């Protein structure tokens, strides 16, 4: 491809991008023109919060709009598909909204292990079982090895990330199902570089539940994949965790 052809394609791409942006601005301007003052104020506020969104109580506080106007405007904005209601795991009883073009952040959804605001314990236990059986079969395994195998084998219908795999392995260590060791490079560790962190089973046959569970397994924290992000004053915290509170009440 010569220089002229490359420049022509680059210029066309720039023009198309500019045209697309212009259309989006025109569409937004058209929609904005059909909004009431209350809708416009609320939409601008909600849009400014991006993937975090905002609670209706904070909307009223920041806009000083009457409750009736807020309710009516939110309903109209939803009917126009400009905003959407999302579940905030930290405050499920509150109505939380964000602009339709954004996807909720992990701070709102709780992360990859949550489905519609609830911790997906069934899927977590399924991933634990699969990882445990693979480690037992391999005798020792690394996080990267488990991740690569799961992707190639297609054992899961959804993709599992490196972070999710690491969280599952940490949970299994806390459950006292596996142990974290460093490779010696010999014997069972011959396929793993010396000094590399890897895991091996403590349970018989790679079946969960045969060994006495670790102390952490008796509280929600022991199976929570977000435990590494849990701090006393953080967004994820024992003070706001509904599962931990239920365990205390029990």
Automatic annotation (TrEMBL):
It is found in: Nucleus. GO terms for cellular component: cytoplasm; nucleoplasm; RNA polymerase III complex. One of its GO terms (biological process) is transcription by RNA polymerase III. Keywords: DNA-directed RNA polymerase, Nucleus, Transcription. It holds the Pfam family RNA_pol_Rpc34. Belongs to the eukaryotic RPC34/RPC39 RNA polymerase subunit family. DNA-dependent RNA polymerase catalyzes the transcription of DNA into RNA using the four ribonucleoside triphosphates as substrates. Specific peripheric component of RNA polymerase III which synthesizes small RNAs, such as 5S rRNA and tRNAs. This is DNA-directed RNA polymerase III subunit RPC6.
